[in-house]
Structures are given as structure tokens and as C-alpha cells.
Design goal:
8 helices, alpha+beta, 2 domains, four-stranded mixed sheet, Glutathione S-transferase Yfyf (Class Pi), Chain A, domain 2
């Protein structure tokens, strides 16, 4: 598919993950920075994402929300970027992409909110126990360069971002395997470009909010 992608985000949001992915893909896109609150709840944007949250992309007639879905869609829509794994890594790609979107994110949000799941209710949450969830994630990144096969993929963008933020803000245990994995992928030029654009947008968004 051709055509410019419209990208809706806020520089202090999960949109940074999608921004990195857009830079990895290399397709033309327009960035629309939205403020939290009223700006994301205007009718024009609610027509794109009824939840009034970012990020979202519009590509032709297609709208995609949720970071994991955006990363997966872009990888498959632009195969020339080679951000989907070969057949040998495809199972790991989907497994860890949606592990991070489901159990990992739920666990980290609950931890940040101070939510303690009672022992007798742990069967109701996808991550079971935090320690067990971190063990599983460690097994996914330890002893391998990338999370899904022999080359960098969209799963590294998404899972790697979750690990990087978790290490930065203390929501993920600073295990050596996590730090080593993040160090291997954090210096990619595409991430640096996206980070520079988002960092430059932060003062403008802060001024608009004030």
C-alpha cells in the first residue's frame, strides 16, 4: 500500500513506540501531536479512536490503534523493511509481541498503580505472578541477539521499548539479561530519529497545555 501515513501521538505517551516503528519502516508519514484530555476527546479524533487515546495511525482507509497492532501492521504493510521474521522466527514474533501487549503491560500497570492481586485470584490475571512473568521475559531475551529469530524485527521495537521504559522507571527488575538486550537495540538510528522528534515536541506541547 502506498500513501502518506497520518500518525497521532503525544510525545509523553506510548506513541514513542509507534514513532520508532515508523522510522524503522521508512514510509512517509505526518505526525499530529495531540494534548491529553480535551484535545484527544474532540469529535474529529474520536472518529479515529473512540477511546480518545494515542497512538493511532491512518493509512489510506485503514485505521490502526494499539501499539502492538500498529507495529505488526506496519511490519506487514511494508515487507521491504524486513521487520517481520523469517518463518523460523514467526512463532516467537507473535508470542512475545502479544505477551508484552497482554501479561507484561497488565502487570506493569498494576504494579505502578499499587494493585495487589490476592493469591486466590491470581488465576484470573494473565501474568499470574510478577516473578514468574519476569522469568518468562528473561527467557525470551537471554542468550539471543533478537527476540524472534536472527534479525531485528517489529517485536524488538515493541518488547524492547517495554523493557527499556521498565528499566528507566524501575517497573522492571534490572536483571542483566534485560539490560544487555536493551543495550543491543537501543542505539538504532531509527529510534534516535524518533526520540529527537518527540523530545523536540515536548516543550511545545507543554506550552500548549499551559
Amino acid at each position: 500500500m502506498t500513501g502518506t501515513i497520518d500518525f497521532y501521538t503525544n510525545p509523553m505517551s506510548r506513541g514513542r513506540i509507534a514513532h520508532w516503528m515508523l522510522e524503522e519502516v521508512g514510509a512517509p508519514y505526518r505526525t499530529h501531536y495531540l494534548g491529553f484530555g480535551p484535545e484527544m476527546n474532540r469529535a474529529e479524533y474520536l472518529a479515529i479512536n473512540p477511546l480518545g487515546k494515542v497512538p493511532a495511525i491512518r493509512h489510506g482507509r485503514h485505521v490502526v490503534t494499539e501499539c502492538a497492532a500498529i507495529c505488526t501492521y506496519l511490519a506487514e504493510a511494508f515487507p521491504e523493511a524486513e521487520l517481520t521474521p523469517t518463518s523460523d522466527g514467526r512463532a516467537d514474533f507473535y508470542r512475545w509481541m502479544f505477551f508484552a501487549a497482554g501479561p507484561l503491560e497488565a502487570a506493569l500497570v498494576n504494579r505502578a498503580l499499587g494493585v495487589e492481586v490476592p493469591e486466590e485470584r491470581r488465576g484470573m490475571v494473565g501474568y499470574a505472578k510478577l516473578e514468574r512473568m519476569f522469568d518468562a521475559l528473561e527467557g525470551a531475551v537471554a542468550g539471543r541477539e533478537f527476540i524472534a529469530g536472527s534479525r531485528f524485527s517489529a517485536a524488538d521495537v515493541y518488547v524492547g521499548s517495554q523493557i527499556g521504559w521498565g528499566l528507566q522507571f524501575g517497573s522492571i527488575e534490572p536483571r542483566p539479561a534485560f539490560k544487555d538486550y536493551w543495550a543491543r537495540i537501543a542505539g538504532r538510528p531509527a529510534r534516535a530519529r524518533a526520540e529527537a522528534a518527540d523530545n523536540a515536541a515536548m516543550p511545545a506541547r507543554a506550552a500548549a497545555a499551559g
